[in-house]
Amino acid sequence: MSRSARESASIGRLLGIRSDRARLTGAAPPPPELGLARLIEDSRPAALVSLTLGGVALAVAVLAPFVLLALNGLSDYEVVGETLESPELRAALVVAVIAGGAAVVVGLATYRRMDTRVARNEAISGLILGAQAVVVGAAVLGFTSGDMVTFARHFLNLDDVTGQTDAFLQGMWNTVLLASISAVAGILLGLMIAVFAVSQRAIVRAPARIYVNLIRGTPLLLQLAVIYFGLALGLAINWTPFVALIVGLSLNAGAYTAEIFRAGLQSIERGQLEAARGLGLTYFASMRFVVVPQAVRRVIPPLMNEYIILIKDTSLIAFLGVALAERDIFTVATTGYAQYFNATFYVASGLGYLAITLPLIAAVSLLEKRLRSGLVAVG
Amino acid sequence: MNDADDTGSARANGWRRGRRGAERWPGGTAPDGVPLIELQAIHKWFGPLHVLQGIDLVCERGDVVAIIGPSGSGKSTLLRCMNLLELPASGTVLFKGREISDVRVNLNHVRAHIGIVFQAYNLFPHRTALDNITLALRQVLKLSAAEARERALTGLRHVGLSDKVDAYPGRMSGGQQQRVAIARALAMQPDVILFDEVTSALDPELVGEVLEVMRALARENRTMVVVTHEMSFAREVASRLVFMDEGAVIEEGDPRTLLSNPKSERLKRFLADVL
């Protein structure tokens, strides 16, 4: 039974009315068939035209540059530049924009008249895909009308970069290492601060609030400067940039994770603490065995976001200056750029960050979905 | 002073803390003539709201005290004052003759002897039924894992949920959850169990199973204080009925007499409204 049918049936039950079908047949009707056959049956030509046009247009707009670059080769920046300026690419993009526009027109003109939900969705999807194709195609067209050879020499010039692959891999490792150590230390610090921050006593809360607000209210770069240069000059504590960055990031992440944990702790119903105290558990035992375990489950997604932020913040180590072996991805890029005057190093570092963060982002959204479904929240 | 006299008389009865051979307070049994729980002149404010206006109440061992009254009359607050989940603004709470409203008393020790069951069950959702029960057995009573498990299984059998040992609260019906909550309180082997409107959050068809468990407890002569809206349950099970309204005890006595022959105007009106 479809959802709406189920809803109306339950409303009917509330009102004491049996549904017509149940009264006529005395049995629940079989669920309607889903699947490909149904999809084909419910489709309409105009909607399919819009969908196909839009889909193809977007695919062409997005893939054409990559396909042509792959065909002509990436190793020589002049070839890359010429590919980007080539009439073939322009033609493909113009086709994509026109087809996308057509999909928009067809979709707009027909979606209201479709007699099935499937067809209506096809028409609407076609018009959206078409609009996306127009935007992407026009943007790439506009960009490639510039001086692509010069652009490619600076940004898509793999000559010098490929020699630095090992340095980049080392940089990725260092980035993950810096972020992970800081995240673990920051989370422990944050949990401690959060426990203070939810105290009944204002004098226990106060230090936690002051710490969190000082850290949240100042730039991370300033904090790093104070820790690295300030401590060295003031107390003659000479940490390496690597250590100073870990300390700085941990202190910084501590404040932000404290806020995450505080929200998590406060989201646990009062009754949980009362039930634990009512059984004779001490306040700290109640927090440890009852409140904190539940709060931690709830804050895992925001904590992972904090970790992703940390991964990117490790790039601030460039500001402190760092030994060759301790370079993170970003510092590898800046030193490479300084050496070869080739900004492709930055493009490569961006790809390096994405290689780390995209899987993490995917993991977060998967986790959020599972937590929302309630299957994990209770376990 | 009143309370000083009372603790004094408890001592005069030959009952001293830490006496060799006897279990230390708050464990053990109170001497004869000393009620299990006694409230004296309890006042409580929520902001400007005077929710408890000088309540005196006595609960003897073996009593089943039912507290009834319109919503907002202070029943739940009064109940929660008995294990000091709610701190009274003034007045004295005595447990086995000792003042537990004294700040020097370690309430964790006292609460281990006073079970409480809540309206919203308040099971720990991240723990199975078994682990809900064993937590306090392990952490408060310091039982071994095997002993705690054994006791928890007995408790679950007691409330008819042997098959839900490893189930999480989220996978149980409200009635089952509430029965686990009762088993959780029961497993501590408390001197008294406080029931705070334990059937009010349940679907009507689930109320019966929970009341049945409570009836069985009453038959076992357990001491219970029950805040409830179930008049027939109060009439049938309670040994004493307390009617509260607007923060004061209006009438108390034998439930049958009280329900069939209310003296005060307010109880008459209340019964006319609920029955």
How do the strands and helices of this protein lay out in sequence?
The complex is a heterodimer of chains A (379) and B (275).
Chain A: H1 3-14, H2 20-25, H3 36-42, H4 45-72, H5 77-85, H6 87-110, H7 117-144, H8 148-155, H9 165-197, H10 202-216, H11 220-235, H12 241-267, H13 270-278, H14 283-313, H15 317-320, H16 329-340, H17 344-373
Chain B: H1 2-12, E1 37-46, E2 49-59, E3 64-68, H2 75-82, E4 90-95, E5 98-99, H3 107-111, E6 114-117, H4 129-139, H5 145-158, H6 174-187, E7 192-196, H7 204-219, E8 223-227, H8 231-237, E9 240-245, E10 248-253, H9 255-260, H10 265-274
Parallel strand pairs in B: 3-8, 3-9, 6-7, 7-8
Antiparallel strand pairs in B: 1-2, 1-4, 4-5, 9-10
The gist of it:
The complex is a heterodimer of chains A (379) and B (275). Chain A is 79% helix and 0% strand. With 379 residues, chain A is mostly helical.
Throw out a few tags for this protein.
heterodimer, A: 379 residues, mainly alpha, 17 helices, flat, disordered C terminus, B: 275 residues, alpha/beta, six-stranded mixed sheet, 10 strands, 22% strand, disordered N terminus
Task: Explain how this protein is built.
The complex is a heterodimer of chains A (379) and B (275). Chain A is mostly helical and 379 residues long. Chain A is built from 17 helices and no strands. The two termini of chain A are 31 Å apart. Mean pLDDT of chain A is 84; it is low at 14-19 and 374-379. With 275 residues, chain B is of the alpha/beta class. Chain B has ten helices and ten strands. Chain B starts with a helix and ends with a helix. Chain A binds chain B through residues 269, 271-272, 274-282, 285, 289-290, 293-294, 297, 374, 377-379, and chain B through 83, 85, 108-116, 118, 120, 122-126, 135-136, 139-140, 168-171, 181, 184-185, 188.
- C-alpha-based Rg of chain A, rounded: 29 Å
Percent in strands of chain A = under 5%
Biggest sheet details of chain B: 6 strands, mixed
3D shape of chain A: flat
Q: Please, what is the average pLDDT of chain A? A: 84
Largest sheet of chain A: none
